[in-house]
Amino acid sequence: MTDLTTPPTTSSEAARWVPGSHVLWRYKDNAGDGIHICRPVTVVQDTEELLAVWMAPGTECVKPVLADGTAVHREPLATRYTKPRALRRDRWFGTGVLKLARPAEPWSVWLFWDPGWQFKNWYVNLEEPRTRWAGGVDSEDHFLDISVRPDRTWQWHDEDEFAQAQRAGLMEAGKAREVRAAGHAAIDVIRSWGQPFSDNWQHWRPDPDWEIPPLPDDWDRTPTHVTS
C-alpha cells in the first residue's frame, strides 16, 4: 500500500492514484487561502470519470474550532463565522464515509452507514470543483448541502448557515446564486437517478487489510502543479 510520501504512479502531478493509496482530502478556509479541514483518506477508485475515497473510522483529521476550543456548531449562528478560530487535531467519530467526486462537478457525494453497515443516506456536499495535486485534492465548502435517503427522497440542509455565510461576507451574492444553481443541478441528477447514485456504491465495503492513513506533519503544505 502506498502512503503520502509515495509519488503517483507516473511523473505527472495529475497521475491517477492506485487503489489503496493514501491521499489528503482538504478544504480551504472560506475567509482566506489557508487549509482549515484536512482528512487523510484511502483511494478506492481513481479514473477520468470518478475519484472515490474512503475515510475510515478513527482517522486523525484537522478541523476548525473557536479560539477557546468550542466546537463551531455550538456557537450561535449570528456569531459562528465572525468569532476567532483555531485548528485542532481530532479523530473522525462514528462509522466511516465513502466520498465520490466527479471531475468539474461543484459537489461531492458522501455515503454514510449506521453500525452494522446499515446504509443511512447519501449526502451531496456543495463545494468548489476539486483541484488535484500530488498529495490529494483541495476544495472550498459552499455551506449548502442536500441529503438523499435510501427511498430516493431528498432535502436541503444548512440553509441557515448558507444565508449567514452571505451576511458575514464569506460569499458574495453572485457566488451564492451559482451555488444554489449547482444544488438544483444536483437535484436533477437525483431525480433522474444518475451517477453516482445509480452505481450501487451503498453495497461497497472497504478492504479489511487497509490501514488507517496517518495525518502527516506537513498536512497543510502548499501544493505545486495543481490541476482540475
Explain how this protein is built.
Keywords: Hydrolase. Residues 74-194 form the DUF402 domain. The chain has helices spanning 159-167, 173-192; strands spanning 22-28, 35-46, 51-55, 60-66, 85-91, 97-101, 107-114, 118-127, 131-133, 136-139, 141-148, 154-157. 13% of the residues lie in helices and 35% in strands. It is built from two helices and twelve strands.
Topology of helices and strands:
Elements: E1 22-28, E2 35-46, E3 51-55, E4 60-66, E5 85-91, E6 97-101, E7 107-114, E8 118-127, E9 131-133, E10 136-139, E11 141-148, E12 154-157, H1 159-167, H2 173-192
Parallel strand pairs: 1-10
Antiparallel strand pairs: 1-2, 2-3, 3-6, 4-5, 6-7, 7-8, 8-11, 9-10, 11-12
Per DSSP, what share of the residues sits in E-state strands of 2 or more residues?
A: 35-45%
Helix and strand element order: EEEEEEEEEEEEHH
Mean pLDDT score, rounded? 93
Number of helices: 2
Strand order of the largest sheet: 9-10-1-2-3-6-7-8-11-12
Question: Which radius of gyration do the C-alpha atoms yield?
Answer: 17 Å
Keywords: Hydrolase
Protein name: DUF402 domain-containing protein
InterPro entries: DUF402, FomD-like_sf, Ntdp-like
Pfam families: DUF402 (PF04167)
